## 1
Amino acid sequence: EAALLEEYRHVEARTRDGIRIEVSANLGSPEEAEEALAWGAEGVGLFRTEFLFMEREELPSEEEQYIAYRRVAEIFGERPVIVRTLDVGGDKDLPGIDRPAEENPFLGWRGIRMSLDLPDLFRTQLRAVLRAAAHGNLKVMFPMVTGVEEVRAAKAHLEECRRELEEEGTSCGPLEVGVMVETPAAAILAAELAREVSFFSIGTNDLIQYTLAADRGNELLRHLYRADHPAVLELVRLTCEAAKKEGIWVGACGEAAGDPDMIPHLIRLGVTELSMSPPSIPRAKRVISRL
Ligand code: PEP
Ligand code: MG
């Protein structure tokens, strides 16, 4: 089995009827980048940035973040690397950020909500990403979006950061902006959101839990937590339909993106990029090649 999959590592995956699907890696830190390439990653569909904030009291500086993002950008070269802005909260608590206890952390202060409430923190990260973008093919995406105002506000910060850096004479790279579709609201409003961004990435882990009101980590609800639930598939369909109308692409980066049973559903609905944990890449490419 392992030997059979070996030959799929470095193929460009295409369905039998010729649809090209980009297969990318989810990264939790820069240390994982080389190995992801070796598994056959064609890019990074989700670079989680929480690692910079974990197991430490002080927040990472712009310079430290810049070095980390630049490192992955350089390792991947021409290939796209999608940096996701900070998404703490929910199941991820971080010591450097002072936060009140919440009764429902998954429905609480996390992702883009927190970033917009803490502009210094957010802008430090955006400046680092803009600078790193001069060294590779970086894109940025925002997590936990529920409406168009959040996206406009986030983009306004990004543009101001770019202006600041340019005034300081610091070079920035071009930076496409995307949003994660991981709340039912984002999927329902996909037509509106699609006018604001260059791509969508469906975060199935959260989209499933919020759609089905089933905590992603609760073992008692395993049977309810299903990526192929018709309500989840309908939201994926809506997202892809809206994206197509607006001419933007849709990726998926939750666990379902690497699941051989879910890949056919995602592709038939219009997803053209799948991002997953690197060891899942060869199998996903084989599944696609046989579709
Ligand atoms: C998701 O929600 O599907 C996702 C990829 O983001 P995270 O698992 O980091 O919440
Ligand atoms: Mg998520």
Note: The mean pLDDT is 96.
## 2
Amino acid sequence: SIMPATLAAISNSAKKGVLFKGGVHAENVSHVKAIAFDKTGTLTNGKPVVTDVYFQSDTDKERIIAIAGAIEKESTHPLAHAITTYSLKQQEINSIHVQEMKTISGNGVSAYVDNQKWEIGRAAFVGEKDALTFHDGIASTLANEGKTVVFVKVEDQIVALFALKDTLRKDTIKSIKALKKQGIHTVMLTGDNKVTAKAIASETGIDQYIAECLPEEKVNYVKELGERFENVAMVGDGINDAPALASADVGIAMGEGTDVALETADVVLMKNDLSKITNAISMSNRMNRVVK
Ligand code: ADP
Ligand code: MG
């Protein structure tokens, strides 16, 4: 049965936008010593926009933009949405017939158009060596600006590069600072490459970052943190984050996250407000003093 003090604390928290799915979670939050954050959609708004596009040659630019937009239209990834939006601003894409579209989690997408294989995704997905030499290594310059770089490959040739920039949530810097002040170790987990990850991590002030982290690696990393810090929380929004949310001592989902993340989490931040995590910890501390 649930203690009255716990019930009161849960109901007060709900009014403030933090939804605990049970008394045990409200209790556990105060024990958290480290928090892992997903990057896209959690520390950032998750609404990247295309800032730069580079092509292999001057021919076929419009067609490449149109096909990339048509392929990404079938993906739910925030980067995909940004590429489709960019494409639609300049091209008509309805006439493009996309076949055998596949999502390769943490990497990108592939599809066939006019019997040619198209792949859109990160450097390691399209071939690191060609990706890094494309346009005299422009990718590393863009990544240093905190941009995510996505390559477009047709058969065995990289034909274009999209750079995309996401913005930090308005409370991210403040929230990380407050958590660090509470003595909590903070880590960013991202599928992005090291250079982009480093640029964004330094914008946020977070203690540590893990780049090129595949969805299944997020789980391993949360477990590893658990060994170092005993009680670990994971904050995320995506389908990809669900296994990591489940393996953390406390799984925290962003309110506008995907259904799977919301269902898996122990705690939901209803207004996507990261600063509510510090409130939840203080509340849990107070509650545990009363209950014990
Ligand atoms: P994150 O959660 O940090 O955005 P993901 O694990 O979802 O990372 O993806 C890792 C990388 O794979 C992205 O940074 C991007 O380069 C590439 N990628 C994933 N999905 C797509 C997609 N639909 N289109 C293009 N690139 C993608
Ligand atoms: Mg995310």
Note: The pocket of adenosine-5'-diphosphate (ligand 1) is lined by residues 39-40, 72, 75, 77, 79-80, 106-109, 120-122, 148, 150, 190-192, 240 (CB under 6 Å).
